[in-house]
Specification:
heterodimer; A: 116 residues; mainly beta; seven-stranded mixed sheet; globular; B: mainly beta; six-stranded mixed sheet; five-stranded antiparallel sheet
Chain lengths: 116, 109
Amino acid sequence: NAGVMQNPRHLVRRRGQEARLRCSPMKGHSHVYWYRQLPEEGLKFMVYLQKENIIDESGMPKERFSAEFPKEGPSILRIQQVVRGDSAAYFCASSPSSGTITGELFFGEGSRLTVL
Amino acid sequence: RKEVEQDPGPFNVPEGATVAFNCTYSNSASQSFFWYRQDCRKEPKLLMSVYSSGNEDGRFTAQLNRASQYISLLIRDSKLSDSATYLCVGQSGTYKYIFGTGTRLKVLA
C-alpha cells in the first residue's frame, strides 16, 4: 500500500525557469495539502485541494505559484520564473477527508528545490 | 504573535532523562492539537493527538491547558532514537493545520 508519492525528490533549476512538483496521495485519499519548509523553519501552509477544486490557497504567493489536483493524475504545484528564495523543501500531505478525527496528515518525502 | 509558537531548542539531554516541551497557540489555531515528529531531512509523522484530559502513549505524555493556551509534550526515559524535531500543530477550522517551527531534541549517549 503505497504512501504519498512525491516527485521529483530533488530538483535544480536556474533563475527564471519553471518548477513542477508532483504529488500522488495515498490510495483512497481525496484531500491534498502542500506545505513549504525553509531551512531551520517550520512548515508553512500553502494550499489545500480536493479533486478538481482549490479549497484554500491563502498560503500561496499571489504570483508565479499555482496548484491543481485534476480528476485524473497527481496534484501539481507549479512555480514559474523561479527565484533563489523559492529554494525549499515542498511537502505534500493527504488525508481521507477534511477534519479527520485523528488529525493525521500523511506526508510524502518532500521535493527539494534548489534554485541556482 | 505567531499562531503556534515553540522554543526551537536544541534540547540536549542524556539518555534516560525526562524532557518536556511547551507550545503556545493563539485563538486562530485552537480547535485540536497534535504533536508530529520530524527526523532530519525527512517528512513529518504524527506522534500523538492531544486531548483536553491529557493522554499518554508509552513514554510520551501530552497535555493541553486551554486557559493558558499551551500544550506540552513530556518524554520519559529518553532514548537515542528520540533525537528529532518535535512539531506542535494546531488545527484551525475543519482542514487547516498550522505547524510550529519545531523543537529540536538531541539525546546524548
